[in-house]
Amino acid sequence: MPGTLNVGGHDIITHTGDAGAGTVAIQDVLQFPAGHVLRQFYDEHYFNNSPVTITTTASNWSGLEIAITNPSTSDYLFLQMFIPDVYAAGSNRGLYQGFVYSTNSFSTETTLGTRNFYCAQNGYASSYNITNSTVLVRVQHPTSSNYSIRPYFRAFTTNVAIGQGNGGADSIATLFAMEIKG
């Protein structure tokens, strides 16, 4: 049965359509408390037998990207990035990892958060080193305009590969974000 839940003169929830079916909608006037998860964003990259080489020149990687729409600069993002099979052939080689954002399809980009890189994964093995990497960061929305986020990488000492395990055949990188009410 169609209907509306009205509290204090504000429509909070509406139901349209037939009883037992139809659509239930939470209206925009509802305010969630601080710390509440508002939305989630997710992307994944399947390497499909094609590992990616990361060079010693810092750059964003287009293999993972999430689009944030209608952000509020009073809210936060909890970002989690998983990079599988980071391959550093030799000692003292590794991968710097951070995030960048752009409001114009990455014609220009800006560091997301307080640091260019939040993780400096270093392979100390004397020969070959393959390991996974997870980066967790909480940042405030940097703008009230729609924007996109990508990983930001730089190899140190020499190039490294990501998605190298089994030639990249079974490797999947992920980028996940939860928007948290500030």
Give structural notes.
With 182 residues, the chain is an all-beta fold. The chain contains no helices and 15 strands. The strands form 4 sheets. Strands 6, 7, 9, 10, 11 and 13 form a 6-stranded antiparallel sheet that branches. The chain is elongated and about 70 Å long. The two termini are 36 Å apart.
N- to C-terminal distance: 36 Å
Integer average pLDDT: 88
Beta-strand portion reads over 45%
The structure class reads mainly beta
The number of E-state strands comes to: 15
Low-confidence stretches: none
Percent helix, as a range, is: under 10%
Q: Taking Cα atoms only, what radius of gyration do you get, to the nearest Å?
A: 21 Å
Shape: elongated
Order of helices and strands: EEEEEEEEEEEEEEE
Number of helices: 0
Taking the sheet with the most strands, its summary is: 6 strands, antiparallel
Question: What is the secondary structure topology, with strand pairs?
Answer:
Blueprint (H helix, E strand, L loop, with lengths): L2 E5 L2 E7 L6 E4 L10 E10 L5 E3 L4 E2 L5 E3 L7 E14 L3 E10 L7 E2 L7 E5 L4 E13 L6 E10 L3 E3 L9 E9 L2
Antiparallel strand pairs: 1-2, 2-3, 4-15, 5-14, 6-13, 7-13, 8-12, 8-15, 9-10, 9-11, 9-13
Brief descriptors of the model:
55% strand; four-stranded antiparallel sheet; six-stranded antiparallel sheet; single chain; 0% helix; 182 residues
Summarize this structure briefly:
The protein has strands at residues 3-7, 10-16, 23-26, 37-46, 52-54, 59-60, 66-68, 76-89, 93-102, 110-111, 119-123, 128-140, 147-156, 160-162, 172-180.
